[in-house]
Specification:
This protein has a single domain, classed as Ribonuclease H-like superfamily/Ribonuclease H (Nucleotidyltransferase, domain 5). It is α/β, with parallel strands linked by helices and 193 residues long. It contains seven helices and five strands; from the N terminus they run E-E-E-H-E-H-E-H-H-H-H-H. Helix 1 runs parallel beside helix 2.
Length: 193
Amino acid sequence: MLILGIDPGTRILGYSLLDNEDAHIRILAMDVLYLKRLPDFNQRIRRIFDSTLRIIDSFHPDHLAIEAPFFGKNVQSMLKLGRAQGVAIAAAMSRDLSYTEYEPATVKQTVTGNGNATKEQVASMLQSILHFDQSPQYLDATDALAVAYTCHMQFTNPLSDLRSQLLPSKNTRHKSTKKQWSDFVSQNPDIVQ
């Protein structure tokens, strides 16, 4: 299971790739797209789309885990973050890649046990869990890793809906849980009444 984690942003977008093979997780990539130098917002959005496609085409992840926009006081910032997130999701969907969105507090809770943890605390905890040497220059990269790690934790939970959706095959759209249940019932009439 290879998870692409994205922390969306229109100035700096963090991304990471977390591989889970034989119950061993390792970081394949962790970096940022530095978008501040692009003066036009439309150019930034286009770069997010093109770069997300390039990452997907290079690494062939099984799933995209993306952080939901933070609902702060500045509505314009939230709208821009939503556009960045939407463009990254659209790029993933154009490659038939499924995705899961995670609230920032859920990611922080999963990684640190505290839904109000700082970016520095999240980075420090990830460094301890995943044993990487150096913190990246921008915490957006470790935020993306935290989203991928949250997805990994959800995937490895045997009771998770995400696990059942992703197990059948690589890089394909999966049946809904409702359809899977009806298939199970029709194949096992003696068990389910």
